[in-house]
Structure formats: C-alpha cells, structure tokens
Design brief:
Largest sheet: 9 strands, mixed
CATH topology: Cathepsin D, subunit A, domain 1
Structural class: mainly beta
Order of helices and strands: HEEEEEEHEEEEHEE
Number of strands: 12
Radius of gyration: 16 Å
Helix content: 10-25%
Length: 181
C-alpha cells in the first residue's frame, strides 16, 4: 500500500505539470481540519518528546495578517503558517515529494489516507505521514502525524498535532514573536 501511495503522489505531480520538486515558502490562509474516514495505523512509536527546557522565543514574519514561523521538518527548513485553527500539520504534495527525493520521507513514514475538511467546507482525501522530527527554535517534537494535501499549491500549516505538545503558546503581536513554554 505504501508503494501505491507514493506512486499516486508522483503521478499526481506529473499530471499536475510539475517540472521539479523544490522547497519554496507557501502563502495562503486556508485552514484544514481532520475528519477520519479510516484510521491510519502508525508504524512508528506514538511517543512524542520535546527536547530542551525553558521558554523558547521564535521570531515570526507577518504578511497580510498571516503569521509565518520557521520550522525544520526532518532536517529541512521551511516556513509554515502558524495556524491554531488547523487540527494537523499540513503540507502540499510539492513539499512531500521534495522530502521524499531528499531521503527525508520514506515509505515507512507513510501511514495511510484520511479525509479532511478545509475552511470552505470541501472534503478531500490526503495522505497521512509521520514526520520524524519537527524543530521550532531549539525545541524538537518527534513522531508527528501530518497530512499531505494532494494539491501542489496548498499552504504549509503548523497545526495542533505539534502545538498541543507545548504547555503554553504566547503570541507577542507588537514584537512579532511566539513564545513556547
């Protein structure tokens, strides 16, 4: 099944006219919330850990009311939309293929498929993956479930599957910082 999902992801990319897969920051403001059609059973440990102690203050970039935060996914730096309304970390097909080509996403990281609903109410099916490492500042959360949206232009959303691992998140709008406690 994992091979089939990878083949589907690659076929969608080719059919969509993608010339090459490379990282580039995404912009947008759609929100995604998850509703399961069938449970994708993780093949990785469910344990999550947050390394480092103390408060972590991270500089954010704001564009047209949207907050972007630097995040490292499996060793690759990316800019995510900080989205407390998103239930999951969401990445586009473009980023998933880039991670796969770099060896940062493997067949073992593919967990299955799941339905999700975006802010417009549309229901789509995405591929559920395990992100082995999500680093924000000096904090690392391991084994995070994320959804690959079968859309090359989908924004990168940092949602609750990461944020729920922190005790408190404070947004300083005047100085453009987010503090993780």
């Amino acid at each position: 099944m994992k091979t089939k999902i990878i083949i589907i992801m690659m076929a969608l990319a080719v059919l969509g006219g993608m010339q090459s897969c490379r990282y580039r920051p995404r912009h947008g403001n759609s929100r995604h919330s998850m509703s399961q059609t069938h449970r994708a059973e993780p093949r990785h440990s469910e344990s999550r850990r947050i390394s480092s102690g103390g408060d972590q203050r991270v500089k954010i970039r704001r564009e047209a009311g949207v907050m972007f935060i630097p995040v490292e996914i499996n060793g690759i730096p990316m800019d995510f939309i900080f989205d407390t309304g998103a239930s999951s970390v969401t990445i586009s097909l473009t980023e998933a293929l880039f991670l796969y080509k770099q060896g940062k996403l493997t067949e073992d990281d593919i967990l299955g498929q799941q339905a999700f609903q975006d802010a417009t109410g549309s229901i789509s099916v995405g591929t559920v993956i395990n992100l082995r490492s999500v680093v924000i500042g000096d904090r690392e959360v391991t084994n995070v479930r994320a959804t690959v949206v079968d859309n090359q232009e989908a924004p990168l959303l940092l949602g609750q599957t990461v944020l729920e691992n922190f005790g408190k998140v404070i947004i300083d709008y005047s100085n453009n910082y987010i503090t993780f406690e």
